[in-house]
Design goal:
- By secondary structure, this protein is an alpha+beta fold.
- It has a single domain (39-87, 120-130, 149-347), classed as Glucose Oxidase, domain 1.
- Helix content is 24%, strand content 20%.
- The strands form 5 sheets. The protein has a 9-stranded mixed beta sheet with strand order 1-18-16-10-12-14-15-6-17.
- Helix 7 packs across helix 9 (261-269) and helix 9 (261-269) packs parallel to helix 10 (295-304).
- The longest helix has 12 residues, at 242-253.
């Protein structure tokens, strides 16, 4: 194991703190035990989290937001040269060309792809129940009090698998919060507490008011536009040469604007079921407290089962000022996976 040292960039620090430190080095966090994070509102057997809040009435109300008959896909293209966190990567090959055939008198051939990747945690990605946890004195604590070594193994996350959320899926009122309009331009990577790159609870309330939309409420899916996603340009990426792509990857991964912990608590109090953004973590990196990286991840996902969609392309919604819409998407039913790729759809 590598030591948990500051190594230059925020992304590297986060990787060192969160992924590579020896378990004994960080001690324990017994807040989940003291504060009784589990069982959650849906009982000790629940595996899906806040998506359980969705009701037929909520779905019908969300369907009513489709006024123009327009659609926008929110996923970005999966490719080997796209930005990725830490050592993650997307490595796709087409073996054979053709992979198989020919067959029959009509000489049929076919092609398949072979993919090597962290398929649940790359590109446009969904964080599921098995992705984020914390070390307590009773073991590694994940959603609804499941202890990792009692629940999961090398070949799957068991009751923490993403398929349990996928069984429900997301059909909800989507809310777009345009922080670029609020701030008057692309948000900066924050330098610390009070930085304009950190979106607070007051900022969320201001955006709702400024955009003239109904208050955020139970069952909503809430998405934040920061402008940071344009560094990994949704339309022109393949027009850039290798040097420009490398520069943009470094800038994209160096940190990010996003929700601060007060905004996350604000959204949680309103019982939303999903967060998302045009960034790779949705929350601000660094946030208000550098000693607690990815605090929103822990408080929203591990504590409350409010899941997360990262690296979204929100550009069409922003251009159309589609601040409320019908959001439809489900993770793939990959047994035991920590998350899922996908291409969500907004209808308005």
């Amino acid at each position: 194991m590598r030591s948990n040292r500051y190594i230059g960039t925020v992304a590297a620090v986060a990787a060192a703190l969160f992924l590579t430190a020896p378990l004994s080095a960080a001690g324990v966090n017994d807040d989940p035990l003291k504060e009784k994070w589990a069982p959650g509102p849906w009982g000790p057997d629940d595996k899906a989290g806040s998506v359980n809040r969705t009701t037929p009435a909520m779905v019908l109300k969300a369907v009513g937001l489709v006024k123009q008959g327009k659609t926008a896909t929110l996923g970005k293209v999966y490719a080997g040269d796209a930005p990725a966190f830490g050592s993650r990567g997307w490595r796709m090959t087409i073996p054979g060309l053709p992979t198989g055939g020919p067959f029959g008198e009509h000489q049929l051939v076919y092609n398949d792809e072979y993919l090597a990747t962290e398929i649940g945690q790359i590109g446009t990605q969904f964080d599921g129940p098995g992705h984020i946890g914390t070390i307590t004195s009773e073991g590694m604590f994940f959603y609804n009090g499941r202890i990792l070594d009692q629940s999961a193994g090398a070949y799957g996350m068991g009751p923490l698998g993403v398929e349990h959320v996928a069984e429900k899926g997301f059909v909800c009122r989507g809310v777009l919060l345009d922080a670029v309009a609020l701030r008057g331009g692309q948000l900066p990577i924050p330098a610390g507490k009070g930085d304009p790159g950190i979106i607070t609870d007051a900022d969320v309330a201001a955006m709702v008011k400024n955009q003239g939309i109904a208050p955020i409420s139970e069952g909503d899916c809430v998405f934040l536009h920061t402008g940071h996603g344009n560094i990994w340009h949704p339309k022109d990426w393949d027009k850039f040469d290798a040097a420009e792509k490398s520069k943009r990857v470094a800038n994209f991964n160096a940190g990010e604007p996003g929700f601060g912990i007060s905004a996350c608590e604000y959204l949680a109090e309103r019982k939303i079921i999903l967060t998302g953004a045009d960034t790779w973590a949705v929350e601000a990196v660094p946030g208000e407290n550098a000693d607690k990286p990815f605090e929103c991840h822990l408080q929203m996902q591990t504590r409350r089962g409010i899941w997360n969609l990262e690296n979204l392309d929100l550009s069409q919604l922003v251009a159309d000022k589609a601040y409320e819409f019908l959001f439809v998407w489900s993770p793939l039913k990959m047994k035991g996976a920590t998350g899922s790729p996908g291409n969500p759809v907004a209808l308005y």
